[in-house]
Amino acid sequence: MAANATTNPSQLLPLELVDKCIGSRIHIVMKSDKEIVGTLLGFDDFVNMVLEDVTEFEITPEGRRITKLDQILLNGNNITMVSQMYYFFLHRFLVYVEFSY
């Protein structure tokens, strides 16, 4: 299958897709009750990520907590999903912003 991926330029491997997000705002859903939005500066083969201008959204027993951070190193073992920010959607917070054209 790897040979097929190299002959078909329209097919991207997972790390290639993450690489295309460098410099972009991304939305990350964690295994815990946290979601993170930030600008991807870099990553390694284990998908550990360096992010800047980060907002962390967390659900606690007291309610929702939002934390702003300048720069973080995120452990890739705890990531469930990564998506590029074309829209703003927080999985557990049910916040939507729709764009109309």
Automatic annotation (TrEMBL):
Q: Name one GO cellular component term.
A: spliceosomal complex
Q: Which Pfam families match?
A: LSM
Ranges where the Sm domain occurs: 13-88
* MF annotations from Gene Ontology: RNA binding
- UniProt subcellular location: Nucleus
Q: Write out the entry's keywords from A to Z.
A: Acetylation, mRNA processing, mRNA splicing, Nucleus, Ribonucleoprotein, RNA-binding, Spliceosome
Family matches, as InterPro entries: LSm5, LSM_dom_sf, Sm, Sm_dom_euk/arc
For whether the record's keyword set contains Membrane, the answer is no
Please verify whether the record's keywords include Secreted: no
Q: Name one GO biological process term.
A: mRNA splicing, via spliceosome
- Give coiled-coil spans as residue ranges: none
Lineage top rank: taxon: Eukaryota
Q: How does it assemble?
A: LSm subunits form a heteromer with a doughnut shape.
Q: What is the stated purpose of this protein? A: Plays a role in U6 snRNP assembly and function. Binds to the 3' end of U6 snRNA.
Q: Would you identify the family this protein belongs to, as annotated?
A: Belongs to the snRNP Sm proteins family.
Which protein is depicted?
Answer: U6 snRNA-associated Sm-like protein LSm5
Task: Write the gene name.
Answer: LSM5
